[in-house]
Amino acid sequence: MSTQFPNNFLWGGAIAANQVEGAYQKGGKGLSTSDCTPNGLFGDIIDRNKHNITSIKDNAIDFYHRYPEDIALFAEMGFTCLRTSIAWTRIFPNGDEEQPNEAGLAFYDKLFDEMAKHNIKPLVTLSHYEMPYYLVTQYGGWGNRKVIEFFTHYAKTVFERYKNKVKYWLTFNEINMSLHEPFTGVGLDRNSTKQQIYQAIHHQLVASSRAVKLCHDIIPDAKIGNMLLGAVAYPLTPKPEDVWAAHNENHGWLFFGDVQVRGYYPTYMNRFFKEHNIKLEITEQDKHDLKETVDFVSFSYYMSCCATSDESQKTKGNILDMVPNPYLKASEWGWQIDPIGIRYLLNLLYERYQKPLFIVENGLGAKDKLEADGTINDDYRINYMNDHLVQIREAINDGVEVMGYTSWGPIDLISASKAEVTKRYGFIYVDLNQDGTGTINRYKKKSFYWYQSVISSKGENLKA
Description:
The protein has helices at residues 17-20, 63-77, 88-91, 102-117, 133-139, 146-162, 182-186, 194-218, 240-262, 268-275, 284-290, 339-353, 379-398, 446-456, and strands at residues 10-14, 81-85, 121-127, 168-172, 223-229, 233-235, 296-300, 305-307, 315-316, 321-322, 357-361, 402-408, 428-430, 442-444. The protein has 14 helices and 14 strands. It has a single domain (10-456), classed as Glycosidases (TIM Barrel, Alpha-Beta Barrel). It has 464 residues and is α/β, with parallel strands linked by helices. Helix content is 38%, strand content 13%. The active site is at residue 361.
């Protein structure tokens, strides 16, 4: 079996505009839903037009100004790909304008040009856990069918602007997250009904397909994919009821992939909708639009979980209600570590879809310590990533077509869930404290040099 990754494998890291850029009201940028959850996805929703408060995300790690330095560091590691996102509100501050904000467009021109100087290919997410807050307050978020048109106008604008600079695109980040955090996912109130949430999700799925069509038409040599939160569930026991519970748990998120890859709603959702009294408004045009399917499937993977028919076994996790696996250890944040799970997930998705796969988020959040000599010894991160990359290599040897791997947070950033900077993922340390103090200078961690050697050896130096 090959001990190297394919020659055309894309190596890199992944960031999101609202977690690194800062400059949250500079360059004509409007307020996003991310700006209005200053303490993270699950914190209070605050209308910052009315309340004068600050958030660590407002400045973040100041990637908006320091991106040339950071791109150079990524290039030093050997990146051939960087996943990032465009802040929708930099392009259309309110979301419903006819004309885009030129200052916002110009910023991403400079960013993509800087990446090109270092031969780093952009993988760009159109919407990563944010949307214009104005579309929430004035239109009701994705619950309003009009938002489909606003999103497709935004997508068309950036496709036309960057068609010569960006050849890899994603539509919505972790699109299945809307089931767990509807404000972040679809701009709905957290007390919304299943009927309201799934109707908003339907609008987003239609918008995603329309964006895919636009990309195919405007940039014929580009590839555009979807992005799933890869929350694979195992049965807690061999008990048939637990096996069925895991089957249903996985259908809950695979549904999003099924629609985006197959081009229609899977029949298994019929019973679910009926049992929950969900009646979606799906037009004939919607059905036609959904037939435009993605070129590849991308996903995040941090952990697996278990499923059981016994509700008392569930514990509240960082994002999802999880059933702990008794055979796995956990990180400092309680996320269970399961490298074999990524091999299982890759095989599961490839067998289901027969489409190329792209791992666009994977990594370990931990409390790193900056030593007096400026070093950061993060062997725990090296071990975590080594073990996952070994299993990705095994999946490739299994016959799975894997396009690339972009680790989450190659540079320390602000965590999405709780807006924490203490939960660090990067190969690059940023001197920033939770209270906003710090020099924001960058320091290379031990893992920086490790990842550099992994890329240069095409994974041959991984320890199986």
